[in-house]
């Protein structure tokens, strides 16, 4: 599914949609209210398009629910995002992905790295995390609140928690 407006105007999505193949975001896309967007393929932006965030989430979620490895090919900011790939295939990204709301880890391994971590803003929270679903790579969390890092690697779930930070900042693990 290619989401693009020929005049460069934002595209508003106000109903839940499920896309069984790739989604290509070629313009600013706004998910209105509690709209959920289920993606069973890759989340793409055209190589010739803007490298900045083109997605503005509402209170709904982007749900990655494929059955093979899924990729997010450019930096993106998701308000709420769910990773639920029942085959435990990896979710791959070579760019920093930012989550400002709820990151739900149900099934599947989300890959990040030191150069392009999975970034969680001060308001972000995580639901889930288990041997079936964790972040394999670097996680960066902003803020001063206690936090659970749902990380792992080499087929092992190895979460850590930080408490009583006493300061506000960016904290990394992975």
Structural features, described:
The protein has 174 residues and is mainly beta. 0% of the residues lie in helices and 47% in strands. The strands form 6 sheets. Strands 3, 6, 9, 10, 12, 13, 15, 17 and 18 form a 9-stranded parallel beta sheet that branches. Strands 11-14-16-19-24 form a 5-stranded mixed beta sheet, with no helix packed on it. A 3-stranded parallel beta sheet has the order 1-4-7, with no helix packed on it. The radius of gyration is 16 Å and the shape is globular.
Question: What is shown here, in short?
Answer:
It is built from no helices and 24 strands.
Poorly predicted tracts of residues? none
Task: Tell the overall outline.
Answer: globular
* Helix share bin: under 10%
Rg over C-alpha atoms, rounded to the nearest angstrom: 16 Å
Termini separation: 34 Å
What structural category characterises the helix and strand content? mainly beta
Major β-sheet, in short? 9 strands, parallel
Topology:
Elements (H helix, E strand, L loop, with lengths): L1 E2 L7 E3 L3 E3 L3 E3 L3 E3 L5 E3 L3 E2 L10 E2 L5 E3 L5 E3 L3 E3 L2 E4 L5 E4 L3 E3 L2 E10 L6 E3 L4 E4 L4 E4 L2 E5 L3 E3 L2 E2 L2 E2 L2 E3 L6 E5 L1
Parallel strand pairs: 1-4, 2-5, 3-6, 4-7, 5-8, 6-9, 9-12, 10-13, 11-14, 12-15, 13-15, 14-16, 15-17, 15-18, 16-19
Antiparallel strand pairs: 19-24, 20-23, 21-22
